[in-house]
């Protein structure tokens, strides 16, 4: 299985640290050329590789850690059919009317035609996401939601690999609404730093 993170700001770097902690190979890409982000990628760990957007989009599972609103631009950059996309974006400040009354992840899924989108890793601040998810013997919770059960299962397995505890909230228009921004407000589960103990 191959992995890529698109976007190398605070959230992208936090997720890269999660991969590095578990020595899982991941490509990272940004609008800047690979050589511009290579020093940061190398500083995070040897399994984190800076690449071009085109090369990163060849990965089987792609994490979107970019500002919301770039979905149409990204749609033109690759063939998204069958690709699992982890949507870590937040549409804070975007009015529900501008989204057509839809959850932001549904907007992203429709733009990336044929993708198998799973909402995940968007509810924690980057500084929390960057920390070791092992908390006092428990595991930090990562919420996820999707309309594709198989994709959700594969993402849940990755979440486990990265050391988090996956909690599936169901479909995007149901549980997914609990972990998205709506206009200028955050919904119930945003910023909830929960820990699961076995």
Automatic annotation (TrEMBL):
<keyword id="KW-0560">Oxidoreductase</keyword>
<dbReference type="InterPro" id="IPR051267">
    <property type="entry name" value="STEAP_metalloreductase"/>
</dbReference>
<dbReference type="InterPro" id="IPR036291">
    <property type="entry name" value="NAD(P)-bd_dom_sf"/>
</dbReference>
<dbReference type="InterPro" id="IPR028939">
    <property type="entry name" value="P5C_Rdtase_cat_N"/>
</dbReference>
<feature type="domain" description="Pyrroline-5-carboxylate reductase catalytic N-terminal">
    <location>
        <begin position="3"/>
        <end position="90"/>
    </location>
</feature>
<dbReference type="GO" id="GO:0016491">
    <property type="term" value="F:oxidoreductase activity"/>
</dbReference>
<dbReference type="Pfam" id="PF03807">
    <property type="entry name" value="F420_oxidored"/>
</dbReference>
<protein>
    <recommendedName>
        <fullName>Pyrroline-5-carboxylate reductase catalytic N-terminal domain-containing protein</fullName>
    </recommendedName>
</protein>
